[in-house]
Design brief:
Length: 232
């Protein structure tokens, strides 16, 4: 086993069971189409990801009603864009074609016995340097050194958006062969999601008062975790 680093959120029992079932069926080579179960898994995964990285921040930080509306509106835009894209990506795919995506889901699914939190989680892998930088900045802001680290934390929030979108959405999409039309739909959905997520960082997170910035750091600290994973 080797220590790996993640930007991750705890999975519900429903998401954990759905992902585990899909992965098990793939390993067993069942003939029944993966599409229905994969759609079910995405129906859990997308809102839980948005809830962890956007919606729950509203309560954790103590945002104003205006800022709260921006966050909720952005989460709604991202969720609708992602859910709209899923049927286009999966339509008429064979299990063989979907195999790489199931392998990818196996890669981002962190078993409870593997994570430092003891919770089943879904995560985007980080390199060690980025993990250590995030932990350092979040700890310093949480401890009250807000202004000294405000710019760096804002940069890390923007970087986190790109890490999540590229490491979870874009990478998964690229595993499937796509025609011109589906590629254009996928590119459009990703652009919409990226603009909405960066909008939250620029309009909300960067402008937080000191005590709310501390709350943000304390909340996001719980999303930057380690896991013991099998060696590649």
């Amino acid at each position: 086993m080797v220590t790996k680093y993640y930007l991750a959120f705890a999975s519900s029992k429903e998401l954990e069971d759905s992902a585990a079932d899909l992965i098990a069926r793939h390993h067993q080579g069942v003939e029944e189409s993966y599409i229905p179960l994969m759609e079910d898994t995405m129906d859990y995964f997308i809102p839980e990801m948005l809830d962890a990285f956007l919606v729950k921040s509203v309560d954790a930080i103590g945002l104003s009603s205006t800022s709260s509306k921006i966050v909720h509106s952005s989460a709604d835009i991202i969720g609708k864009s992602a859910r709209m894209l899923i049927p286009h990506l999966l339509k008429k795919r064979s299990n063989q074609e979907l195999g790489p995506m199931v392998d990818f889901m196996d890669e981002i699914y962190l078993r409870p016995e593997q994570t430092e939190t003891g919770q089943a989680s879904s995560g985007c892998e980080l390199d060690q340097a980025t993990y250590e930088r995030m932990r350092r900045v979040l700890a310093e802001v949480k401890a009250g050194k807000v202004e000294e680290n405000r710019q760096e934390l804002s940069e890390l929030m923007s970087q986190s958006v790109d890490l999540m979108l590229d490491g979870l959405m874009k990478r998964a999409i690229n595993l499937l062969k796509q025609g011109f039309v589906v590629r254009k739909i996928a590119d459009g959905a990703l652009s919409t999601c990226r603009a909405a997520a960066h909008g939250v960082v620029n309009k909300v997170f960067k402008r937080l008062e000191d005590h709310k910035m501390q709350n943000l750091a304390a909340y996001f600290e719980g999303l930057v975790i380690t896991a013991q994973r099998p060696e590649s």
